[in-house]
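Internal QA ticket QA-208
Title: Verify multi-chain structure generation after dependency bump
Assignee: T.L.

Test input:
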Amino acid sequence: EDQVTQSPEALRLQEGESSSLNCSYTVSGLRGLFWYRQDPGKGPEFLFTLYSAGEEKEKERLKATLTKKESFLHITAPKPEDSATYLCAVHFSGSARQLTFGSGTQLTVLP
Amino acid sequence: DGGITQSPKYLFRKEGQNVTLSCEQNLNHDAMYWYRQDPGQGLRLIYYSQIVNDFQKGDIAEGYSVSREKKESFPLTVTSAQKNPTAFYLCASRSLPQENYGYTFGSGTRLTVV
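Actual output:
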């Protein structure tokens, strides 16, 4: 069964303390991996799409990377406004264009 | 500006009552989706539709129904058969020829049983 697992479930950082979030997947064929940011009480906001191992994407303090079995979302020198839940989603080749979501990592950045 | 509008933002349902959640998009997207989000869990797919007048069940369709009479609209009805409907409901859409952008989400409807 195709699965998406995110870790850790929650992460507390001091402002400026860099870290990484993990998204691992077991798939029969990866067609794309997506990262979203979700603020409390709101819908997820698209961040990145990755398609192949070795690919990297950057946006401000965020950098997403992809290997054959997992993706990392690196947060460099985070600020309190980066606090949110970060969701990973995967498009599997046999999924009729649906996305399978992980349960998310709740990030809190303390001032 | 283009986007997805969900309404209402908050909804209260009495036991045995059916309620309908609205989802409208002006992005000209082909596919639309309904997800349910519970605390500590990932998004779970309820129903999806890739073309007008056609839709498919997702992983947790029992107790829910949908329609897709117009490309722009994909309402979700939570029926009395859904025994635990309290959750955050998210509607999403996607342009099938532009899969690299993933989904665009609405702002959600929080449904509470009273």
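Spot checks passed. The interface with chain A takes residues 4, 6, 31, 33, 35, 40-43, 45, 48, 50, 56, 58, 88, 90, 92, 94, 96, 99-108, 110 of chain B (CB under 8 Å).
Status: verified.
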